[in-house]
Amino acid sequence: MSRHEPGTEPIAEAQPPTELAPAIPLEEVGRIAERVQELIAAGDPREAWQRLNQLHPADVGLILAGLPRTSSEALLQHMNPVEASRLGARLSIQTLSFVLDQVNPRHALTALQRLPIRRAQEVAEQLEQPIAESELLSQDPNTAGALMTDRFVAVDADADIADLRTALEALQEDRGQLTYLYVLNPQGLPDGQISMVDLALAPADAAASSVAAPLTAVVSVDTPAQECARLRRHYNLTQLPVVEGNTLIGVVLPDALLGVTVEEDTRQMLQVANVPGERADGPMALSICTRLPWLTINLATTFLAAATISLFESTLTQLVVLAAFLPVVAGQGGIGGTQTLTLIVRAIALGELVGIRAKRLLVREATLGVIHGIWLGLLVAAIAIIWQGNYGLALVLGIAMMGNMLIAGTVGAGVPLLMRRVGIDPAVASAVVVTTFTDVFGFLLFLGIAQAAISLLV
Amino acid sequence: MSRHEPGTEPIAEAQPPTELAPAIPLEEVGRIAERVQELIAAGDPREAWQRLNQLHPADVGLILAGLPRTSSEALLQHMNPVEASRLGARLSIQTLSFVLDQVNPRHALTALQRLPIRRAQEVAEQLEQPIAESELLSQDPNTAGALMTDRFVAVDADADIADLRTALEALQEDRGQLTYLYVLNPQGLPDGQISMVDLALAPADAAASSVAAPLTAVVSVDTPAQECARLRRHYNLTQLPVVEGNTLIGVVLPDALLGVTVEEDTRQMLQVANVPGERADGPMALSICTRLPWLTINLATTFLAAATISLFESTLTQLVVLAAFLPVVAGQGGIGGTQTLTLIVRAIALGELVGIRAKRLLVREATLGVIHGIWLGLLVAAIAIIWQGNYGLALVLGIAMMGNMLIAGTVGAGVPLLMRRVGIDPAVASAVVVTTFTDVFGFLLFLGIAQAAISLLV
User: Fold this and answer.
1) pLDDT of residue A74
2) ipTM value of the model?
């Protein structure tokens, strides 16, 4: 689709306002989006663009992401590159490179880094502006190397504050997010840091080393992004210097660290539900490739549960009402196990669990399982008496419930702790393993006890 | 427990190193924690403290949190107040106030704000240092008012850069995290912001207003913390000015904004699993109060499922092997529904879903449900033929599976979108509602079709 169709004004020349528009509530973004969609449907993309152009770029990106593809491509001029990269998988290479040509190379690079490397390279080839730092594209995207920018300020120990100001000034708009400058040792490694606040207050002739403070953390170019996020959160760091061998080659800025935190939290939450790496508006094929394997694995585990039930076919024949209670014990175990699991997975991800707490947590969750099991066991027994009037069934249900809640607590805590110990991300398969345990043991306990006590039941 | 027991040195006099120790990997924290525990067990808390004292306060806090209470109380001198507040619920009021008396009042206040207000007030009463900003304790803890600090710099439009530097200098250590200073209009409201970088580079005699940039967002004292986090993420803001009426009364700093983001992500992930507001090491009573209501609600829904099954007792009597397949159709629906649900809840929380996308997402997820249903239906039918050799059963299972996956996709997307529309947090009850649907409809479809086609099965 050409941007210069007959009947539409060429809008490529429109310039974004130099001052960013103010923030607005999300509901208002929604209302404007509806209005924009109406205007496009009414054949007035120019008026639609006028509306969009008054918004903050972040809101423009959000609205474009919500429009059908044909509408959004007509309105692509001034997109926030971060939003552009989110849309990257759905936009054509031509459209995307057109958007990225409008922004400064560092932003374009950030956007490209969020695409799969192959696709990023295809887009980079189409760009009119050179991406000088194209070597960054070869960095592993989940490392400090891919998060960093190479626009930073570092000076030798004998520099003074005036030198630092000159170096900072030379960065132009790239200096906006910097919070620290560095003083290098004679080997070229960062030896101290100077905060922007201290720089603002220091006299011009002071030695840089006299206002420098020691560094809390230096990361290497291949430090995992997740570890960078942990350092940021745990040690309250706003900027991480990145070294390769004996050279300071970049810094990871606050926004990149926040981005990692949000992405990592998203990945983890989705991983527990077995939709890792998906986006609500991503391509359908990606969704299928992501979810179907987990659904298939889960099918295998439900057949394990089915096989467990089929062991007790003769018991079920004797008392078919048992079938109705099958989901009760197993289902409660699944919920209880998932509660424990989620809590532990999250605590591990936040770096809150050092090894010495593992055993204590296991005991804690098993104890909670017993307490919850007693309450739920009594409740379920009472319901069975009221509903079916069968005291034997009530006893069996109550005991099975207590047993399965104990298993749920133990397995819900034990599986993620064990996975961490052997070096697997606990978010990955814990949920499937835990619910398989609670299903199989739920059926085994309930039907097994029922079989043993069948004379009490019929 | 007294800190001056016979046989132990008084360690209260030990001073924290003025320079913060470097960051270390989490595994090393774990090893040191084990060693500290051994030393305390061997009756050498002084040596244990020597080890701890060489670490960054954040790591000291992490290790103290992992120690049994009696051990940690002996080692409480130099805790990071953020960690202290995490431990707050488990420490005695005396111990906590002792820790908070060692840190600067702003940090002590931050720590107090993370406690329940009542408990915070009890601790504040015990403090030796006055918490001058004690009025902040009356702020709703989930608003900008509770997140902000009242140490900021704002000057009138006719001030110059030298005035700004003087005001900044007067803040002393509280200036560390500031990234922006403000220029006020004649009414006293913030009119423009000056970044620390621009301040560092501006000549001393320049007018403050000449380097000021327009503000993207100003929040009021009662703006929800969640909205502050959204503004930070969506608009890339590092600092939010807070106004009450016509007065600038504080700023929300980057760390507070990150804290809200992490807390909000945790809350949401735990909420989906029905463990809202819990901590892995929190008090047992809190865990029980949090989880047991959800477990009980869930018990009610599993009895809905049980009642559904009991409608088909006569069919089950005719072919008891049907019971074995009960968890298969319902279980797959539950997993599929949760996948969809989690994706949508997360997208809503990240502010990625403006209204116009809702209908599209519903169609998308229903379509995915059909596609997944066809694959799983064929697979489950094939397994039924191989395992039971029953073609009729295979047909019933396959059809029920397709139907339930369609329901899972539709309900998994529809429930959170509907809850958002009526103004309820979709994370709260969505999971229970969705799995109830997939359970009940799973049993209804499978047993209903089996009953209708019973002549094909037996």
Assistant:
1) 67
2) 0.75
